[in-house]
Specification:
The chain is mostly beta strands. It is built from 6 helices and 39 strands. Strands 5-6-7-8-11-12 form a 6-stranded antiparallel sheet, with no helix packed on it. A 5-stranded mixed sheet has the order 9-10-14-15-13. Strands 32, 33, 34, 35 and 36 form a 5-stranded antiparallel sheet that branches. α1 runs antiparallel to α3. It is globular, with a radius of gyration of 32 Å.
Amino acid sequence: MKHTPEKDALEQRIREMADSIKVPPSLEPENFIKRLPDRRQAPMIRIRRYIPAAAAAACLLVVLSGTFFLREFSGDPMIQAESSAPASQAGSGPSSAEPSEPSASDEDPQGSLPQQDPANSGETPESTETPPAESSGGAASDEGSASSRQPEPPASQAQSPEPSSAPAPEPSQPEDSLQQQDISAYEDAYRAMLAFRQNSEVYENNDIAVASSRGTSVQLNRVGSAALPVQQNGAVICTLSSDADADTVRVYSMSNPQAPASAFRPEYQLPVFNGMHLSSVSFSGLYLEKDTLTVVGTAYYWSDNGTRQREVAVLSSYDISNPQKPVYLSTLAQDGQLTASYNQNGRLALVTTYTVSPSQALSEEHTSSYLPVCYVNGEEVLPSEEQIRISAEADAPVYTFIGLIDLRQPDEFQDILSYLGKGDTFYLDEGQIYMARSSQSQTCLTAFSYTGSRIRLEAEATVDGVMMDGFSENPNGRSIRVSVSTAQNSVSLYLLDKNLNMLGKMENFIPDTNVSSVWYHGYFAHYLDASGKFICSVDCSMPRSPEFLNQTPQEMGDFGEYYEFGSQVLKVTPVYDETGVQTGLQLIMYRDRTPVGFEELHSVTLEGPVSLLGWDDPASLYLDEENGLIGFSVVDYGAETPIRYVLYSYDSRNGFVKLLDQPMETDGSQYLDYRTGIFDGETFYLAAPDRMLSFDMAQLKAQAE
């Protein structure tokens, strides 16, 4: 094949067109696999917009490969010096909207060129890459502009190709965007909101998600926990109390328990929304990591015309290295209602649920009009394209928004994830977040992970049936358990790995039985009816082959609250007389001897018309399995001083022994300070509104004996 200027122009034109049609880095094989480990279970990555560009690029590579083969066979040299190459035509680089047709296209032995227009392919080019070495004989380098390219060296000089030095052209971005690499995720989110807006029914029956009552961030026997009203780190005790006027944080020095606590109302710097005013800020819990105290709460906004409300989760942080002079540090916030949280060694995963209001104005140019965002000291921080995911099952304008925060340096978000998909049950554990949403006949499951400083969407799956009592994790930490009630008036149990791949299952194994709840303890799943009667159990120690344990139903008495206490089970239940009047509060300790059943070991009754303070909050009980301590506050409706703090010791030989029954003076409604005690190995502490009470444990035990 003869080498002519026309053919040189054709070859140069082919390279320029190949460079102008790029598959985004997010769809390169290695990146796509990283972003979507299990594509079968997480079909939310949309790739249809890239298919035409990818096909055109493949065709061009075939043409270039054929040209190279013919040249090598004929002995023709590669493209010669720059003076022999025709000048590039205007607008022929990657940024051109319409490349002109090569004049020698009819002479191309490989056939006509693909008619791919980058401007109309639905894609914004992300980077300028060099053609493959097989087709160019070397790597081209850009000089100055994308439309002016330096010819390749002769074939004899093509052994050491130089990498391209030209920066990638930046895609077009909305005015207020930050760190955007590709606008496709923004477009998809915006179009999804428009579709929901056209179907007003999706806003009906759109309940806010709540954390499940078992196996969530508020479960006491886990290393991490939700925010509690009392925290301590060995040097200080911090408490949060609320009354009708304000929330008050108090910091007590454990080295000087008699010294008055320093008290302050949390400060914050919150975002300002056009057309809305801040209604109130309510704080609910504390996190304490070393010398940094973070107060967690919710800010409520109302539109000026009173038509809609907006909620924002708030974290206000303080330096308390000097307990007498706390110093305000910063405020972090994220859109949505606080749903769940988990603190793992100072790394906080914060989950909120955010609904795009039907009266909220949508603007494609303003990302925060259709996406939840986070805030640092009131300044908006938008998610990048990599931080947006859209569930294939999304059927309402509801986002699950996850923020990852280092509580020791709470001046920024380590990562965020904006997931268009609703959950009504959450389970948080070390590095894992599981979400479920049940419909009338199915439950959609979603798994996230947060390793290092990144949050990732791992998988989505669907099981038949309506979820019962949340997720649970096997003690080995390698599988999770989900029980569902089915349309056949039965129960099914599924065991899945952390990426929601099915390991084992038992379907419809309790037919025609009124199963009301499931209680997971150790490797077993126990099923109970509405009255608390024990029905049967399943051994899940071998996830791939769960074993049904056919047991005689066991009467468990009145249905109460169950808590894990080491390898045993603690039940707390009110006691009533024959007329229905409450006469006491009973604590029962069981040994779980499956498959024999539950065996009652010891019980004790706290006499009087008393009720556990905070029945709906598992954090109301102080459970210290290592030291055998159980503490809680009660409301005594027949006493002059209504609040009492009760502390029991427990061991298998002596059973329950009451160590403390302390009336607590109240200041307004600041009894929340008493919901949790603190034990440091020698002294048990209780925080009062104006001082801290301390009790020598050895003395308490001596008095009890």
